[in-house]
UniProtKB/TrEMBL annotation:
Residues 1-28 form the signal peptide. Residues 46-296 form the Laminin N-terminal domain. Residues 353-388 form the EGF-like domain. Disulfide bonds join 378-387. SUPFAM superfamilies: EGF/Laminin. This is Netrin G1.
Amino acid sequence: MYLSRFLSIHALWVTVSSVMQPYPLVWGHYDLCKTQIYTEEGKVWDYMACQPESTDMTKYLKVKLDPPDITCGDPPETFCAMGNPYMCNNECDASTPELAHPPELMFDFEGRHPSTFWQSATWKEYPKPLQVNITLSWSKTIELTDNIVITFESGRPDQMILEKSLDYGRTWQPYQYYATDCLDAFHMDPKSVKDLSQHTVLEIICTEEYSTGYTTNSKIIHFEIKDRFAFFAGPRLRNMASLYGQLDTTKKLRDFFTVTDLRIRLLRPAVGEIFVDELHLARYFYAISDIKVRGRCKCNLHATVCVYDNSKLTCECEHNTTGPDCGKCKKNYQGRPWSPGSYLPIPKGTANTSNVCDNELLHCQNGGTCHNNVRCLCPAAYTGILCEKLRCEEAGSCGSDSGQGAPPHGSPALLLLTTLLGTASPLVF
């Protein structure tokens, strides 16, 4: 009987294991900041690294075009159809909804027919360059988790630069150059992401892979995030522990996938041949039907929720941290310097919770004891972060018959610390 039961349990385990096989246990989802566990001292919180889910970040951005009047339709103008540059009877008119092509159509729901798209004015001022900057701003630090994908309704531009900012648009760095001829346009040898490696993954390259001009079945430009992840996690991203380890220990790599803003610099429209046809300038323009940016709020592994309120993204911080990115300790929780959470060890990581107490400066008072630097265990008569308040004071029942008098006088250093903890300005250690 026991043998048959064992064999049944073993068969069940083999079945469950085979079902779970495609989903590696070493990934780590980091979708919980804390969980309750039972110890000899009772039920306590067990803290772990955590982060928000990856999502479509275009729902939260603000878009800005430069020059601001570059969108077609004011005044109305005609342009030539893609694929037939000599059929120039299409009209763009900003005052007519069916003929308007405003910037928000780069981020609306795709799948409709005909597709919706933003469109620039035509190159009617040739030979003056037709150049457009499209800036995407989040007013929040975000971490990219998937490829940036730009779908053009016109031909893909002959020359383009994708740029990023980490300081809300004050300074910019190139992410990638795109051209039909990298050497001629940017004095760079052409490369693709496949030419990179773990050691050169941060290299800024120029690619000719996405600049084929007027080709109806080639409308998409990528900035390859996942291919760069694959240098550390493998081609199917199964070894995420390796990637997490690199992100934990290499700040430049972590910053490479982090942005506050993106800027698409369109420098030369799709010409399709060596010379510009000056008799048909209405065939040259930019048109974008869709931009995809997937990522998550950067919360320094101290939050699983990022709320969008009053047109602003903010982390709902855990681990006694605060700030838009959970980038500092809460007041009265500064027993040690703030630190981001860590992905390691897989799968729960390390929370690096801001400390409530320690055995050097932030002592628990009135007989309280410091538990794992996270909280003070107070005697029954006391409460507060550092056990600094009588419990009866909160209930308004302190008196001569309550058995609880005024708290004992502490040392001058202890009184000074209590005073500091009550001030408005945070302590920094």
